[in-house]
Amino acid sequence: MSVITDSAALAELCHHLERQDFITVDTEFLRDATFWPRLCLVQVGADDGAWAIDPLAADMDLAPLWALLVEAPVPKVFHAARQDVEIVVRATAKVPAPLFDTQIAAMVCGFGDQVGYERLVFELAHKRLDKSSRFTDWSRRPLTDKQIRYALDDVIYLRTVYEALRDQLAKNGRSAWMQEELSTLTDPATYLAEPEDAWRRIRTRSTDPRFLAVLREVATWREVEARSRDVPRTRLLRDEAMLEVAAQAPKTLDALDRLRGVPKGLAGGRVGKAVVDAVNRALALEPGERPKVAGRPAIPTNTGPTVELLRVLLKMCCEDAGVAQRLVASGDDLERLAADDEADIPALHGWRREVFGNQALDLKHGRTALALKDGQVVVVDAGGGA
Q1: pLDDT at 281 over 70
Q2: Which terminus of the chain has a smaller tally of CB atoms within 10 A, N or C?
Q3: Residue of 161, 162, 115 lying closest to 323 (CA atoms)
């Protein structure tokens, strides 16, 4: 087993890796009981081997690894990279670059929504992975040879998966699509959100400024507190409870204690006082200081059949193009498109418009129609011709 447990060996390895055509990268971490992920293992693969780097080894300095990931020009290949990248950004304030995500590439190449690594390895590398160590506690030492082999498989076969997807993107001319889809993943702002913006991640349909002001203050408090104590947000207050607090705006501990969604006893402790203080800060704001969000455009009640037709067309277009539906349009996007030709949705921009948007507008306005031909749904022009 190739396990790196000291800083000198790591520096030597990184010097070797930066001269590769590309490297594959994966991490094992824990965050069930923490706000920040606790990095337990880093796996890297090259054409001449794979290595497990132990961040928990005594006196391990990961500086050469961080430099390799964010400064060296060698491409870094991940699968479902979001949380791996978050770890790197927390350590360096930079995103690994150049970066390739095989899950995103697989969606662009028509493998479906959020396709798993195990499936890609089976379909592209023709290997079945042993997943018996998937529930390993990666913080425990020593790790067994079986656990190390399991971890290294995640970068060994990723090389074959990457090469197959890279070649397919080049063949179908979708490398530009891939880069467009990577834009959010490679934006440092994705990982460096300010506590004051935490409320935006909480799902709510309310546009009431008073409600949103309370939600913003409570969410900001929770974010700061969870980060400083390194505990999960939900250990302090669940999202459902925050929404009830925002709706009811309890000004006192007694009022907070009467809310059904707030755990019993919470009002009697430090958390309860902090929540009430946040509520009162929000209520003291002037109207102009409260958040304002644009209301969701009203969807006409008669658009239901149009949405269903667009849904069928979306499936057809994505199957023909060999791209995952999720990348092109959501159900909400279809509703907005049914109501408004100028809806600001991804399906009406860039490559998505070519794949689906233009055909959707033609269908909506009767320039084309859907029909059955030999048992298959097809698009026909308004005159009935296929």
Answers
A1: yes
A2: C
A3: 115
pTM given for the model:
0.86
Tokens at 158, concatenated: 């990723």
Rounded Cα distance, 272 and 211, in Å: 19
d(CA 386, CA 380): 4
Architecture of the 195-289 domain:
Orthogonal Bundle (1.10)
Residue pLDDT, tens place only, 250-277: 999 999 999 999 998 999 999 999 999 9
Residue ranges per structural domain of the chain: 3-190, 195-289, 301-381
Please name the fold of domain 301-381: DNA polymerase; domain 1 (1.10.150)
For residue 105, the surrounding DSSP H or E stretch is: helix 102-108
Q: Which residues of 183-220 are buried (b: 16+ CB within 10 A; e: fewer)?
A: eebbeeeebeeeeeebbeebebeeeebbbbbbbbbbbb
Query: Rounded to the nearest 5°, which phi and psi values hold at 289?
Result: -90, -5
Is domain 3-190 in CATH 3.40.50.720, yes or no?
no
Q: Check for a shared fold between 3-190 and 301-381.
A: no
